[in-house]
Design brief:
Elements (H helix, E strand, L loop, with lengths): L16 H4 L3 H4 L2 H9 L4 E2 L10 E6 L2 E6 L9 E3 L2 E4 L2 E3 L28 E6 L19 E6 L12 H7 L3 E2 L7 E2 L1 E3 L12 E5 L5 E5 L14 E4 L2 E4 L25 E10 L3 E8 L4 E8 L10 E6 L4 E3 L10 E5 L2 E5 L8 E4 L9 E7 L6 E10 L46 E2 L82 E5 L11 E5 L2 E5 L17 E5 L4
Antiparallel strand pairs: 1-2, 2-3, 4-5, 5-6, 7-8, 9-10, 11-12, 12-13, 14-15, 16-25, 17-24, 18-23, 18-25, 19-20, 19-24, 21-22, 21-26, 22-23, 27-29, 28-30
């Protein structure tokens, strides 16, 4: 009886029952009660006491038949001499009982917490028994249950899994049809309605099979990746930045929970350079928040040829590293925050913070320029505490219009001294995660004239080409959903790296799809001799015998087009 569907029961009645409903015996006399009990032709038997037991009689075939249900007449039934029946007795000087309105009793102690750590929910209940409503008195109005946050201390690292991932993983086990196959489940967010966010949607790894295992996730589960709301009895309830239900605490501009914006300072810089290959734009310090970075057009420039990249302090790339470009809008989870990336395109190359928290480790923003003759311009900003000063980092320049290396400087090489090499295929950044954004379709032509993002390979691609399935966000809203199922899952908006299969040899079909599968040919040469271009490959749908088929799921068609970098021009 908990939920929006039952809230109407708490509405105030349009009619007061205590004022409008008299005793039943005043509306229905003994004869009417007999007819209602035994049918037409029956009436009360005279000289019997209706208050103790109502006897009725009817004449049939010349004889009187007597009937009773061994029950007294209704309260208020006339029993003679101006008296009426009340509780089985014939009494005088009667009046209808005065209505007694109900009142709430005391709140019960708090119940058990739904989680042992990480922020659970506990309930307390009260009852309408002080007093219990009587004689058509009003029932209590207001909430019967209240809840609060509990056990807010962080959980120990559980292989990096979230609470929702744990609930899906609890369903892991052997395939009921094939015992030698072990099934693994993980959360699914794509296309989920807001009203269904608190249902346990899980997707089977390596397939497109989605199952609702429970109509309710456990209380305290985040509604969606990076969400500031938790599920409580199938409803999303807002929390503060401290994770407490009902808290009004918010992050300030420099990522401090409950802090004042006046304690923050905005750092804005512009980087300009002709440096070839990867060059550092800025190292954003740990503790910074609300990062934004984007390429700018220089005078006379019509399209971008360079692209942004991001790497951690240990040198590992999380976006567009090792000459691999993400052409899809995506979500990058790194250093305790979620960053949105526009995907590289002719007119846009932008990175921005989605969550308001501060970085837990420094990140280095880079830009890759394939052509020395073309200068690149990057503008970026972030917030730091005023006391910390906010070092601009390497390559950041000084002042609002700070510059990188001079435009006439000689180009630098990569650390290993090699020139940029051609892309083997676009690669997914290791920390990109699913988003609710839809992947653009693959161009029908094998020689595209515009940069359009290829479609993400499906989980039904042959084993050698398998890309993990594409979970959704949540919030089904673009790049605003809080929690992320995994930091290593490719998004529907990043191009997974696809190994080239042996030409002419179809790959083995994936488990669960032995009828038809996609065959992929080798990647052709890059369409340009230098700079950024496209390359294509052949796709064929084949059945289990190698014959052409129409049975492949086009929703999971592998990418036929990929970005490539052919080196300096």
């Amino acid at each position: 009886m908990e939920g929006e569907e039952t809230d109407c029961l708490l509405n105030k009645p349009l009619v007061s029952f205590s004022a409008s409903v008299p005793l039943a015996g005043r509306s229905y006399d003994a004869d009417q009660q007999c007819r209602l009990s035994f049918g037409p032709g029956h009436r009360w038997r005279p000289e019997s006491d209706p208050c103790r037991m109502l006897w009725c009689m009817a004449r049939r075939q010349g004889q009187w038949h007597h009937s009773s249900k061994n029950l007294p007449a209704a309260d208020g039934t006339d029993c003679g001499g101006g008296r009426v029946c009340l509780s089985g007795e014939c009494v005088s000087n009667w009046q209808q009982a005065k209505p007694v309105d109900g009142n709430w009793g005391s709140w019960a102690p708090w119940g058990p917490c739904s989680r042992s750590c990480g922020g659970g929910v506990q309930f307390s209940r009260r009852f309408c028994d002080n007093p219990v409503p009587a004689a058509f008195g009003r029932y209590c109005s207001g909430r019967r249950d209240i809840f609060q946050s509990c056990n807010l201390s962080p959980c120990p690292d559980n292989d990096g899994r979230t609470f929702r991932e744990e609930q899906c993983a609890a369903r892991n086990g052997p395939d009921p049809d094939e015992e030698d196959i072990f099934q693994e489940w993980e959360p699914y967010y794509h296309g989920i309605r807001e009203a269904d966010l608190c249902k346990l949607h899980c997707i089977l790894k390596g397939t497109s099979q989605v199952t609702v295992f429970n109509i309710r996730v456990k209380d305290g589960t985040r509604c969606s990746p990076h969400s500031d709301a938790v599920c409580v009895r199938s409803r999303c309830v807002k929390t503060g930045c401290d994770g407490v239900i009902g808290s009004r605490k918010m992050y300030n501009k420099c990522g401090e929970c409950g802090g004042e914006d006046s304690a923050c300072r905005k750092v804005v810089r512009r980087y300009r350079s002709r440096t070839v290959n990867y060059s550092d734009v800025v190292t954003i310090p740990a503790g910074a928040a609300n990062l934004k970075a984007r390429q700018e057009f220089r005078r006379g420039q019509a399209r971008f040829t360079a692209y942004l990249a991001l790497k951690r302090a240990d040198g590992a790339y999380v976006l567009n590293g090792n000459n691999q470009i993400s052409g899809f809008e995506s979500l990058v989870s790194v250093a305790g925050v979620a960053l949105g990336y526009s995907g590289w395109g002719l007119k846009r190359d932008e990175l921005w913070a989605i969550t308001r928290g501060a970085l837990t480790e420094p990140l280095t923003l880079q830009v890759y320029n394939p052509n020395r003759r073309r200068a690149v311009s990057v503008i970026y900003s972030y917030y730091v505490r005023r006391a910390e000063g906010g070092s601009p980092g390497q390559g950041g320049g000084l002042g609002v219009l700070g510059r990188g290396p001079a435009l006439g400087d000689s180009p630098t090489r990569q650390p290993n001294g090699t020139e940029p090499t051609a892309l083997t295929s676009p690669k997914v950044p290791s920390s990109t995660v699913p988003t609710a954004l839809t992947s653009p379709k693959v161009p029908s032509s094998t020689a595209p004239t515009a940069l359009t993002s290829p479609k993400v390979p499906s989980s039904t691609v042959p084993t050698a080409l398998t890309s993990p399935k594409v979970p959704s966000s949540t919030v089904p809203t673009a790049l605003t959903s809080p929690k992320v199922p995994s930091s290593t899952v490719p998004t529907a908006l990043t191009s997974p790296k696809v190994p080239s299969p042996t030409p002419g040899k179809p790959s083995a079909p994936p488990i669960g799809n032995a009828i038809a599968s996609w065959w992929t040919g080798p990647w052709q040469a890059c369409a340009v001799s230098c700079g950024v271009g496209w390359r294509v490959r052949r796709l064929i749908c084949q059945d289990g015998r190698g014959a052409r088929s129409e049975g492949c799921d086009r929703q999971y068609k592998p990418s036929a087009v990929a970005l490539c970098v052919a080196g300096r021009c």
